[in-house]
Amino acid sequence: MLNRRLLRIKVVKALYAHFTSGSDSLIVSEKNLVFSIDKAYELYHLLLGLAVDVRQYAAQRIEIGKGKMLPTAEDLNPNTKFVDNRVIEQIAASEPLRDHLDARKLSWSNYPELVKKLYQRFVESDYCKEYMASPTRSFRQDRQLVEKFFTEAVEDFEPLEEALEEQSIYWVDDIDFSLILIVKTLQDIEPDSPLMLLPEYKNEADREFPRELFRKALVNHVEYFGYIDANTKNWDLERIAFMDRIVMLAAITEILGFPTIPVKVTFDEFIEISKYYCTPSSSTFINGVLDKIVENLKAEGKIEKQGRGLVEN
Prior knowledge:
This protein is mostly helical. The protein has 2 domains: 153 residues, no CATH class; 80 residues, Orthogonal Bundle (N-utilizing Substance Protein B Homolog, Chain A). 68% of the residues lie in helices and 0% in strands. It is elongated and about 80 Å long. The two termini are 33 Å apart. The relative contact order is 0.12.
């Protein structure tokens, strides 16, 4: 399932898009937010299916080798450990995965060169060579190979990033999150059991979380931007990056609007987000400003947290 870090990132991006586009429709912007979250879940399925396409390409190479006019001994007696990998077979046999991909017309059929390059990157790796050469073969080895395929061959593969960017502007930033979901899925696979896909959300609370955070930020943005401005009086407001303000807006909204989330959790999450989506010095700046804002809000009794120990001293 999509974790809350990703959901927070989606909200920050949706808020930035809402304000910079000049949109005055909360409903339209919220639909765009939900769409971007659904696209991340789509990518999880699409990347998971990529292992099947690479295996199919490997199987085709074996058949081509057997059909040569003068086949070698290796052509006639190929090593089929990869094409017979039982974990990939479970992925290929998954009806929920196939239904999800078919319903959304998601496939790699238009990217044969990408599949070929990924296969070459994969088979040239030391971990693949070791797997293929091993005289033993267990389900655990099959699973470890597929995990390596995703974490070594798929991750940080530029041709793949380019192909995804062609298909959706949402996907490039979501690759790492999707791979985390895939590894979790693979770790839960058992022999002779169907593949269990992760749900999009952990629970109903997680489903509502990004929508509620987004709505509350927009409804209260004038007040919350005021807190930011009041605590940056010594700064040239025009020089403060707008994304910094958006991250702080989302953080303040979560601190004030979600009584069951500890302040420290909110701090840690949005500071980490700022390290990736703001300027190099933003995390220190945002941390300092938020610290002042929280101190003032606590003094005014505006921070209310439910549950023992949720309000830090």
